[in-house]
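Lab meeting minutes (informal)
Scribe: AK
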Amino acid sequence: MKKISTLMTMIAIAVLSFSFVSCDEDAEIGYTLEGTWKGNMYVSSNYSGRTYDATYSEIDFTSGVWVDYYSNAPYDYIANHITWTVNNGTIYVHFVEEGTDIRIFDYSLSDYSFSGSIYSGNQTVDFQLAHTSSPNWNRYYYYGYDEWYDTWDSGYYAKGYNDAMSRSVKRDVELPKRIFRTK
């Protein structure tokens, strides 16, 4: 009887230990999104009464920057800072400078590709992106001796980069307005 009681206690402890482990799907999606993604988001912009289609877009979820590149427009690119979050599997993106929001849902996400649907206003647009860089792909250094620079360091740190957008001066000119378009 004592062996059965001990065995039941061990089984109960094993079952309870699994209940303390939590796998947060939203956090896993966020970790996979970290890095830079490049592809066609089917973005256009309105400027001076004309509409221009972006050639491609780059989104860096790590630093929070979304850049749409244009080839036949009066500007080469439109860049915005973004904040984003994942809630119940839906990705919410806020464009800081524009003050607009989009939702990304019904998507497929892997370490290499990201495709799905964007909901902007009352419009749904499909997109497809490829993963071009990641913070885990040589962006972070480990503390210790760095043979390349012949120095010692005392912790993890990220490479610095120049973010000229945060120091730009606001001008009183018409700015292009981002719109999402169907294929």
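Next up, CB showed the second protein from the same session:
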Amino acid sequence: MKADDTDSLSSQSPLAYVVLSGGIGGATGDSVMHSLDTVKTRQQGAPHALKYRSMLRAYSTLYLEEGFFRGLYAGFTPALLGSFPATCMFFGTYETTKRIGAYYKAPDTFVHLLGGLLGDLVSSVWYVPSEVLKTRLQLQGRHNNPHFYSGYNYKGARDALKTIYRKEGVGALFFGYKATLARDLPFSGLQFAFYEKFHQWAQDYVGHGKDMGVGLELLTGAAGGGLAGIITTPLDVVKTRLQTQITKPTSVGGPTDTRVILSDSVLRSLATIWRTERFAGLFSGVWPRFVWTSTQSSIMLLLYQTALKAFDAYDPFNLEDHRQKLQ
């Protein structure tokens, strides 16, 4: 099957509407699921902390000890500031890749994989610095946190940015960049390849030209994101450890960070975690990651489709009229 045959996200909508719809869907999905992402970060960044061992226990512990906003939603500001622009860039690149693939009649699975890879590569320049800030603040929790020692003690997102720049340099905002790409490029490629295939099967099931309904839309999005999330969990563990590990003494009081210092090499880091922690280390946080990726994916893709249909129907910027005049 070629790329122009049965693509759930393919459209001839103005690219500006595709970009805005992607930003709306991505930012909303990330916002709704941020607390679970915090739980996953604590599990991966503090693998020996028993109180974070199970997902439900970690969630309740964070809420009871540190609160909703300063605990579960720590790091939300940089997450939101990174999410909307990054997903705009991602969907713009993804849709452009699909349209080029359709023009050259390339196999659709190849186009979806390539589109996901390229979309994440382009958007990574924006979201990786925000990911570093977000992850450190999630691991730290509240300022002067008496319940957990992370090695960091930022007063907030602005203080974190200033402190990192002053003490570690601008390059620190790209700590774990290779590990982030190693996680996110295959994740995005697999996520959208799985999603497009599941969406195609669902459309075949209900019949072409028929509305498959919100339930199936959510299910196909969740299946694509959840499956890709499980497969790439070891890479997510490496990314989290690299972006949060302490490599220099800090002025913050507290016990020494006992985690093994990982190499900047993703493969060597995977080998180190396997040697010291085995399967439990490589797949720490797998269930929060599965719940997060499946739910976030379903919300993002449903809202993307909904927003794009609304933009196409109302054409608030008169882009359809402008395009027709050019034809």
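CB comment: Residues 15-248+259-321 form a domain with the Mitochondrial carrier fold fold (CATH 1.50.40.10).
No objections, moving on.
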